Amino acid sequence: MQTPNRYLHLEGGCNFRDIGGHATADGRSVRWGQVYRAGVLRYFTAADAERLSSLGVRAICDLRRAVERKKEPTCWPTPDVTTLTWEDGDNAPAVTGRLSPRQQLDAEGMRAAMLNMYRDLPRWMAPRVRGLFECVATGRMPVVVHCSAGKDRTGFAVAMLHAALGVGADTFMQDYLYTNEVGNFEEFIQRRRSASLGVSDDRHPLFRMPADIRRVLFAADADYLHAALDQIDEEFGGLESYLREAVGLSAEVRMRMQDALLA
Q: How many angstroms separate the CA atoms of 159 and 229, rounded?
């Protein structure tokens, strides 16, 4: 049996891929063709539309902030898709907001800002993760979960989904790091100069940033995701407590998710 392609090469796609195929601790595996992760869904071509229509997507979980949704609204090729969005709430994570006014914008400063932003993700993302879980548990699939680059917020949400399904930490880290092989964010933006991928601070236009800063900004770095996991350990006492207390994952919902997504 041929293994499906994890990465879906689309002319206007950004980091669009299938999260299926990963093994769980109990010997099952995540079904293919049910949950996709991606960056911005704005720039698809006519050729992309035909392929995307064939996926049969029923729901889109848009993890972005309101200003991002307004700047780069989703253009999905089929009309019968439910889009889920959430209020920004307080202290929405943004890497530019994590730069001190006196902090020099260099690679070291950007890396520190990225680590701090990831520490903000668990609490802020909890309602969004809950919404993704409900989407899976109620069978509203296939579903696309995305943010701007499909790397940070999406990476965290998909890691939490994999964890809830019983996929091990080493494996969901590999899925997170796969962005480094297929992201190509600078090329994506160069071909679509209007694309922002969440980099919307006019004081620091992307292509005025030195290359070493851009590499830090667009990297999927294991230390980033570990910063979020460490914050979960510190604030909630572990991943299971976080899923139960902050996300609101019950045993019943988890069982429904596993029944829906595990083969």
A: 10
